Automatic annotation (TrEMBL):
<keyword id="KW-0472">Membrane</keyword>
<feature type="transmembrane region" description="Helical">
    <location>
        <begin position="56"/>
        <end position="79"/>
    </location>
</feature>
<comment type="similarity">
    <text>Belongs to the binding-protein-dependent transport system permease family.</text>
</comment>
<dbReference type="GO" id="GO:0005886">
    <property type="term" value="C:plasma membrane"/>
</dbReference>
<protein>
    <submittedName>
        <fullName>Spermidine/putrescine ABC transporter permease</fullName>
    </submittedName>
</protein>
<feature type="domain" description="ABC transmembrane type-1">
    <location>
        <begin position="56"/>
        <end position="249"/>
    </location>
</feature>
<keyword id="KW-0812">Transmembrane</keyword>
<feature type="transmembrane region" description="Helical">
    <location>
        <begin position="126"/>
        <end position="147"/>
    </location>
</feature>
<feature type="transmembrane region" description="Helical">
    <location>
        <begin position="188"/>
        <end position="210"/>
    </location>
</feature>
<keyword id="KW-0997">Cell inner membrane</keyword>
<dbReference type="InterPro" id="IPR000515">
    <property type="entry name" value="MetI-like"/>
</dbReference>
<keyword id="KW-1003">Cell membrane</keyword>
<feature type="transmembrane region" description="Helical">
    <location>
        <begin position="230"/>
        <end position="251"/>
    </location>
</feature>
<keyword id="KW-1133">Transmembrane helix</keyword>
<dbReference type="Pfam" id="PF00528">
    <property type="entry name" value="BPD_transp_1"/>
</dbReference>
<dbReference type="InterPro" id="IPR035906">
    <property type="entry name" value="MetI-like_sf"/>
</dbReference>
<feature type="transmembrane region" description="Helical">
    <location>
        <begin position="91"/>
        <end position="114"/>
    </location>
</feature>
């Protein structure tokens, strides 16, 4: 018994060191911009860079648009699949997993082929159209994670009973989704939203090939031309991602604790 417990703790320790040692080394290296002194000069330079602010702001806005757009598509679809189209669930799950199989570069080249300047719908000729394509690409990339989060939330509640009770009181489908289903899957929606946010913030392929000033291409640009600033950016991006993960955990726990 003691041997098993010791092996478990040893495995946890090895995994923790494997994860934290490279991160600590990256953080330590980011503090060496001024020779012979540990300082946050690399962070100051990054935060003072106007391109950093503009690219991060662009990605944050695009992440919000992607989350809203994705939720507007996925929540009703997952709801009706859970309620009336359960036989289609294997097919829907297969479709939602395709972005994990098809490389992002293939998808973006398909967009460029379909919506270039010589096509019937030349979206790439306009900034707004290109941003719309980028948002669509991000929704596609986030589809597996967002759909799984929403589906898990819907399976945790009795969708059929709630729907039948609301319909007996004269509620329409839109009212049922907005006033009954959404409040009950709030934690699942937030989980999908923060996962999507983390994906959008660090995505490079779509933004680079569509030539948009997103945060991913900025990370690559800094990494190719600077020494200490890329390490600082890596630590900051890691902190943003884990902050999202932490918020998911807090919201999920509070949601479970609030249930009767």
């Amino acid at each position: 018994m003691k041997t098993n417990r010791l092996s478990h703790w040893l495995a946890i320790l090895i995994g923790t060191l494997y994860f934290l040692v490279p991160l600590a080394a990256t953080f330590e290296f980011s503090l060496r911009k001024i020779r012979g002194v540990y300082s946050f000069e690399a962070y100051r330079v990054v935060l003072a860079d106007t391109q950093f602010k503009s690219s991060l702001g662009f990605s944050v806005v695009l992440a919000v648009v992607t989350i809203v757009f994705g939720m507007a598509i996925i929540v009703p679809m997952a709801y009706f699949v859970e309620l009336r189209l359960r036989k289609l669930r294997p097919f829907i799950e297969f479709v939602t997993l395709l972005p994990l199989v098809v490389p992002a570069i293939v998808i973006v080249f398909g967009y460029l082929r379909l919506y270039n300047s010589s096509s019937i719908l030349p979206l790439t000729n306009f900034t707004l159209g290109t941003n719309f394509l980028l948002a669509c690409g991000y929704v596609t990339l986030a589809l597996p994670y967002m759909y799984r989060s929403i589906e898990t939330g819907l399976r945790s509640i009795d969708v059929r009973t709630l729907t039948e009770a609301a319909e007996s009181l004269g509620a329409s489908s839109g009212t049922i989704i907005w006033r009954i289903i959404l409040p009950n899957i709030r934690s699942a929606m937030l989980s999908g939203a923060f996962l999507t946010f983390a994906i959008v913030i660090g995505e490079f392929t779509f933004a680079s090939l569509l030539n948009r000033p997103a945060f991913g291409p900025y990370l690559q640009l800094i990494g190719a031309n600077r020494a200490y600033e890329p390490a600082a950016l890596a630590v900051m991006a890691f902190a943003i991602t884990w902050a999202c993960m932490g918020i998911i955990q807090v919201v999920s726990r509070n949601s479970v604790a609030a249930r009767p």
